[in-house]
Amino acid sequence: MIRERRDLAKARRIVVKIGSSLLADARQGIRQDVIDTLVDELETLMRRGIEVAVVSSGAVALGCVRLGWLGRTLSVHEKQAAAAIGQPKLMRAYGNAFARHGRIVAQMLLTKDDLRHRRRYLNASNTSATLFSAGVVPIVNENDTVVVEEIKFGDNDTLGALVSLVIDADLLVMLTDVDGLYDKAPREHGDARRYGVVRQFSAEVLRAAGGAGSSFGTGGMASKMNAARISTRGGVPAAIVNGQRPGVLRALLAGEDIGTLFLCGSDRRSRRQHWIADVLRPEGRLRVDAGAERALLERGSSLLPVGVTAVEGVFDKGACIDIVGRHGVIARGLSNYSAEDLRKIQGHGSHEIERILGYRDFSSVIHRDNLVLLHPETGEER
Ligand code: GLU
C-alpha cells in the first residue's frame, strides 16, 4: 500500500500515460528520440521486475502531421481518419524502440464504452495479465476510429486511470511537459508553488488545476486531475511528472520529491462503486423527497419506492440511474426495477409492490450496495 513517497519503491505494476505533446512534433511527426529515451527508462524498470503498461496518445496528432492538417479545425470523422493513419506510426515507433532491447510490444485499443461492458472489461483485464506474464508491454490507446463520442485531447488521461484499475496497477504516472500541479501558472508566475503530495481534492487544489493545457492541445491539468481522482478513489495513486526530464520515472519510484503525487484518501471506493460511479453511464433519473435524501446521505440507506417522486427516462431493470435531490444529483446506482414499473410503484410502501406489479423481486429501488453518493451541486463524488 502506497501511503507516502518512499512507498513508491514498492510499486510492482505501473501504468505510464504519455501525452501527444511529448511525442509529436509539428514538422517531423513522431519524435523517435523521445520515445527511445523513455523506452530505455521503462526497460530499466522492467528489468527490476516492474510490469509496465503504456497508455500513449499521439495517433491523431501524427495523422494530422502526415496529412498536413495541423492547425485546422477538424470534424470528428477527420480526427478518426487521422488517428487511423497515426496509430500504426505510433506502434511502429514503440515497437522499434523496445525491439532494441529484444522486448515485444502489444497494441491494445480500447474505448471507454468497451469498459462499460463487464465482459469486455474482464477480457481487457485477462488479456493484459497474459501479456504481462509473457513479458510483453501493452501499448494502449483509445480506439479512436470507432469512438462514438467526440475525440478530445485529455481523453487518454481518463483512459489511463481506467486502465490502471483494469490491470490492478500500483501506480498511474502521467507524463507531461510541466513539472506537476502548481498553485498558479508556473510559466507566468515566478513564485508559483508546486504541490508535492496531494491527499485530498480540496477546493484549492481543484482551482489550481483549472487552467488550460499546453502546446499540442493536451487536456491540461483539469483532465489529469480528474484522472487522478478516478484512480485514487479506486485505490491507485497517481503522479503527474515532467516527461522531458531524463530519469524522471526512476527518480519518482525512488521517492524523490518531483512532480505531484496524488495519494488515496479515506474516500476509497470498492471496485463495484468505482464501476458504478466512473464507468457506467446513467440512463435515467429518479427525483426523491427530502426524507429519502436524508436517509441516503446521512444513514447510507437503500432507496425505497416511497421516497421517489418522479421517474425520468426509459430504462430497464439493472440500469445505472442518477438520484436527484433538492440541489441536484446526489447519488448514482443500479435500479432493481424498470422505469415503467417504477412509475407504478413510486410513492408507495415496499409492502405494496407485489399488489401493484404482480411480483416483488426487491423491497428497495436501489440497494445500498449498488449506490454511490455524489456531490449535490456538481455530480462529483463525495
Ligand atoms: N487518443 C488520442 C490520440 O491518440 C488522444 C487523446 C488524448 O490526447 O487524450 O491521438
Radius of gyration: 23 Å
Number of helices: 14
Q: Could you please say which CATH topology of the largest domain applies here? A: Carbamate kinase
The structural domain count equals 2
Using the coordinates above, name the CATH class of the largest domain.
Alpha Beta
Spatial sequence of strands, sheet with the most strands:
5-6-4-1-7-9-10-8
Output mean pLDDT. 89
Shape: globular
Main beta-sheet strand count, sense and barrel state: 8 strands, mixed
CATH superfamily of the largest domain: Acetylglutamate kinase-like
The second-level CATH architecture of the largest domain is 3-Layer(aba) Sandwich
Query: Could you list the spans in which at least 5 consecutive residues all have pLDDT below 50?
Result: 212-218
Q: What is the helix fraction of residues, given as a range?
A: 25-40%
Q: Indicate the structural class.
A: alpha/beta
How many beta strands in the DSSP annotation?
15
Helix and strand succession?
A: EHEEHEHHEHHEHEEHHEHEHEHEEEHHE
Head-to-tail CA distance between termini: 22 Å
Bound molecule types: glutamic acid
Strand content: 15-25%
Salient structural properties:
eight-stranded mixed beta sheet, Carbamate kinase, 18% strand, Archaeosine Trna-guanine Transglycosylase, Chain: A, domain 4, globular, 382 residues, alpha/beta, binds glutamic acid, five-stranded mixed beta sheet
How does this structure look, described?
It contains 14 helices and 15 strands. 37% of the residues lie in helices and 18% in strands. The chain has 382 residues and is α/β, with parallel strands linked by helices. Helix 7 packs parallel to helix 9. It has two domains: 267 residues, Acetylglutamate kinase-like (Carbamate kinase, 3-Layer(aba) Sandwich), CATH 3.40.1160; 92 residues, Archaeosine Trna-guanine Transglycosylase, Chain: A, domain 4 (Roll). It is globular, with a radius of gyration of 23 Å. The strands form three sheets. An eight-stranded mixed beta sheet has the order 5-6-4-1-7-9-10-8, sandwiched between helices. A five-stranded mixed beta sheet has the order 12-11-13-14-15, sandwiched between helices. Strand 2 and strand 3 form a beta hairpin. The relative contact order is 0.11. It binds glutamic acid. The site of glutamic acid (GLU) has 16 residues, from helix 3, strand 6 and helix 7.
